[in-house]
Input
Amino acid sequence: MEKDNYQELLEKYKSRIRKEFGKGAVKPVKQVDSRVYSEFKRELYPNHYSWYEKACNYSESLLKIKADPKKAVKIQKDLDLCHLNVTPSGVTAFSILLPLFVIIFGGLIAYAVFRLPFFVVFFMIAWAIAGVFSVLTVWHPALSGLGGYAWIIGAALGTVLHLMLSGQKSRR
Output
């Protein structure tokens, strides 16, 4: 459906350009795959990876998980658009490992600061529920419509859970 809209919009503007500038104005764009372009790209982009690329590639080596084939095509298209040297499997693995890292180390920091196991459990439960919901809105087709609001809903879930676990009532 999205591709149909794109093609329709593309044809609309091509016909408009032909009308205003003549038939020779609209030429098909060829994919650039020459040796010269490859050299240019190699010289232009830095040899080092960004922290995100390093994290995705390392996550992929730790967690062998395959991205959904349907979503992998879209993710790869987006990665190519951003010129990131990662794979959809690496992005998927990183999306699982980063929240786990935050949950575990956040719980340890909470214990180090407050010296109470309650805060460790609270931190882990609150982050786990909010994080799992946010991740599910991206991965699960039934919840994908909420993807743009996942962080708001996840934050609200975390807040409600915080109020429930701490025994406080919200102020009105």
